[in-house]
Amino acid sequence: MPKVLAVDLDGTLFYPKRPRTLISFANIKFLRDFIDAGNRVIIVTSRNCDFVAKTAAKIDRKIDYVCINGAQIIIDGKLIFNESLPVGRSFEIFQDMKDHFDQPLAWFLDSDKYQNLVYDNGNGWFVLQFFKYYYKAQGVYQQDYLADNDKFMDELKHGNIYRMLLYFGLGKRRMNIAKEVNRHMRVAYPDIVEASWINNVVEIAPRNCHKAAALERIIVHEGINREDVYVVGDSGNDISMFQAFHDHSFCMDHAHDAVKKFAAHTIKRVHDLRKILLNEEVNHD
Predict the structure, then answer these.
(1) Whether the predicted pLDDT of 133 surpasses 80
(2) What is the mean pLDDT of residues 229-240?
(3) Strands, E, within 56-157: which ranges?
(4) pLDDT digits (tens, 9 = 90+) for 167-223
(5) Domain residue spans in the chain?
(6) pLDDT confidence of 134, banded at 50, 70, 90?
(7) DSSP state, residue 82
(8) Closest to 249 measured CA to CA, from 266, 236, 271, 237
(9) What fold does the segment set 89-206 form as a domain?
(10) Nearest Cα to 203, choosing from 230, 236, 176?
């Protein structure tokens, strides 16, 4: 039976970084050979679909993808799943944060109208300059963003929002605040959100929108045997895949131990899977 490889982008397929080509040649060649052998690749990422389409074009093969951690699923170039937070509830969460917690330096959201819409939370010029230079430094990996507090508030109240990110800044104290906010979101809004925490960032997504749920939806939609699914990633939002497809789960060796412990196997590069999935020797780039 054909194999299905679900692969994360940042820290995984994009590792090691290649500022000019986006993906290393060895990883591109492996995916092409894997697909040409009759198998299937699904990109699973927190990035938006426009960026994923650009990535898939680099591989130059038919690839399906899961975007924004499962809020959107593209199969054969068609949107088969599209889930957003209940309209207006995002504003309720925003107000809850204002009333009960030290504020993040900035909020980000992805909606059906905007990608990386930024609210600077009153920190003004300094924060906006920081994000301006941060995104510029990402080179080929950067995504477009828009800093506009008025548009952000309008989207919170009326928009179809796929995801919100809360960035709390640097330092252990700010990290602990993020950790507490993540815990609060899980307790206060269990019926509407999936909350995850990575260092100083909290991610809020619609309920049951995570990478494993997206793959389960694809399995049903496409009639895939789950025993043929292999997953690879490196961060906290990949843990759901590691748990759901544990026997065929691979974590990048550079990942944090708190993530690696959930996967059955570790690899240094995505193309290391050539030996496992194609029974061929691997030459490291």
Answers:
(1) no
(2) 94
(3) 64-67, 72-75, 78-82, 106-111, 117-119, 146-147
(4) 988 889 988 999 899 999 999 999 999 988 877 889 999 999 999 999 999 999 999
(5) 4-83+209-277, 89-206
(6) low
(7) E
(8) 266
(9) 3.30.1240
(10) 236
* CA distances in angstroms from 255 to 152, 177, 191, 231, 262, listed in the order given: 33, 23, 30, 15, 11
Q: Which residues contact 136 (CB under 8 A, 6 or more apart)?
A: 142
Task: Give the pLDDT score at 142.
Answer: 81
- DSSP assignment letter at 172: H
CA distances in angstroms from 124 to 77, 128, 133, listed in the order given: 40, 6, 15
Choose among 31, 33, 50: nearest CA to 41: 31
What's the CA gap between 153 and 249, in Å, rounded? Answer: 40
216-229: b or e for each residue (b if 16 or more CB lie within 10 Å)? Answer: bbbbeeeebeeeeb
Q: Does residue 112 contact residue 79 with C-beta atoms inside 8 Å? A: no
Residues written for the chain: 285
Beta bridge partners of 73: 66, 81
**Percent of residues, the chain, with pLDDT higher than 70:** 92
Confirm if 90 and 68 have CB atoms less than 8 A apart.
no
Which residues pair with residue 66 across a beta bridge?
A: 44, 73
Structure tokens at 131: 């994000």
CATH number for the region 4-83+209-277 comes to: 3.40.50.1000
Q: Give me 244's structure tokens.
A: 């759901």
Q: Which residues make Cβ contacts (< 8 Å) with residue 24, sequence separation at least 6?
A: 16, 18, 269, 271, 285
Question: Tokens in use for 284?
Answer: 């490291």
Contact 107, 91 (CB under 8 A): no
pTM: 0.89
C-alpha separations of 101 from 81, 95, 177 in Å: 34, 10, 8
Tokens 């925003």 identify what position?
94
What is the Cα–Cα distance from 225 to 222, expressed in whole angstroms? 9
Residue 174, token pair as written in the block: 């700010």
